[in-house]
Automatic annotation (TrEMBL):
Keywords: ATP-binding, Nucleotide-binding, Transport. GO terms for molecular function: ATP binding; ATP hydrolysis activity. The keyword ATP-binding applies. SUPFAM superfamilies: P-loop containing nucleoside triphosphate hydrolases. InterPro entries: AAA+_ATPase, ABC_transporter-like_ATP-bd, ABC_transporter-like_CS, P-loop_NTPase. Pfam families: ABC_tran. Residues 2-238 form the ABC transporter domain. Transmembrane segments: none annotated. This is ATP-binding cassette domain-containing protein. It comes from the Bacteria. Gene3D superfamilies: P-loop containing nucleotide triphosphate hydrolases. The lineage of its organism: Bacteria, Pseudomonadati, Bacteroidota, Chitinophagia, Chitinophagales. It comes from Chitinophaga sancti.
Length: 267
């Protein structure tokens, strides 16, 4: 679990996060959503220590990341996997070498052990056959999967993903969402995703934090969103007539399902 306690962040006179508290839950896909400029990226960078905060604290499973000495911070950082927006693969390295990279940097295992671990991760993202290929030879969706394999190779407890679906078609996006969700539940990771993608919100949002102008406006699950009366959230998520209709239909479906369950219980 990652806790943000009254975090504050500004640049000069400009205050971006005046006072944000939120919890990123263990074993769940935690989404940070909000319109452009609402402070999602700044919040994520503050969480991983890429930006120093001006006030408040960030706790990793109860340990105060903000005030701990650099050596202890390094220890926490070793438990963080990152999936970057553009996949950020090294073009001159094969898929296998890209996934091996964090192991070469941080693991003391033998070459054989490292290769086995790389293959395990590539198998998990169904890319074993692409091990010898270079990034230029694979699709955008495959690159994301390589990025996921690289992010999990050190068995992280925390996984951060910045816009994991950017540049992907809707079907591939859903596959990436599904994979991240499965991996999160399988390894009981605390996953934090910064996203604009409404499919991700509705399909993967175990826990969602909605940011509005640097403040936490709303939080809840993807099912809570269907019933939320928060106007700003509704305007953001259900921006079109089509989506508003879809929301009403989903509400009715849920009511019907609950009604059936109640009837079955009674009988
Ligand atoms: N290094 C910086 N120096 C000054 N201002 C910054 C810096 N980084 C971000 N900001 C400002 O902080 C605000 C929030 O930016 P942020 O990137 O967190 O938004 P966002 O919600 O992630 O937007 P998007 O969805 O477009 O990525 C913006 O007004 C941005 O200009």
């Amino acid at each position: 679990m990652i806790e943000l306690v009254n975090i504050k962040k500004g640049f000069g006179e400009k205050i971006i996060l005046p006072d944000v508290s939120a919890v990123m839950e263990t074993g769940k896909v935690n989404l940070i959503i909000g319109s452009s400029g609402s402070g999602k990226t700044v919040m994520m960078k503050c969480m991983v220590g890429l930006m120093e905060i001006d006030g408040g604290k960030v706790l990793y499973d109860g340990q105060d990341f903000t005030s701990m000495p650099e050596l202890e911070r390094k220890h926490i950082r070793r438990q963080i996997g990152m999936l970057f927006q553009g996949s950020a693969l090294f073009d001159s390295m094969t898929v296998e070498q890209n996934v091996m990279f964090p192991l070469d940097m941080f693991s003391k295992g033998s070459l054989k052990e490292k290769k086995t671990r790389v293959m395990e991760c590539l198998e998990r993202v169904q890319l074993k056959d692409a091990a010898k290929k270079f990034p230029a030879e694979i699709s955008g969706g495959m690159k994301k999967r390589v990025g996921i394999a690289r992010a999990i190779v050190l068995n992280p407890r925390y996984l951060f993903c910045d816009e994991p679906n950017s540049g992907l078609d809707p079907q591939t996006s859903l596959l990436i969402d599904k994979l991240i969700k499965e991996i999160t539940h399988e390894f009981n990771m605390t996953t934090v995703i910064n996203t604009h993608d409404m499919n991700t919100v509705m399909e993967s949002g175990d826990h969602i934090v909605y940011m509005y102008q640097g403040k936490k406006q709303w939080e809840g699950s993807n099912e809570d969103i269907i019933f939320s009366k928060d106007e700003k959230l509704n305007d953001f998520i259900f921006a079109s007539d089509f989506l508003r209709d879809a929301k009403e239909m989903r509400q009715m479906e849920i009511f019907r399902e609950k009604d059936w369950r109640n009837k079955l219980k009674k009988n």
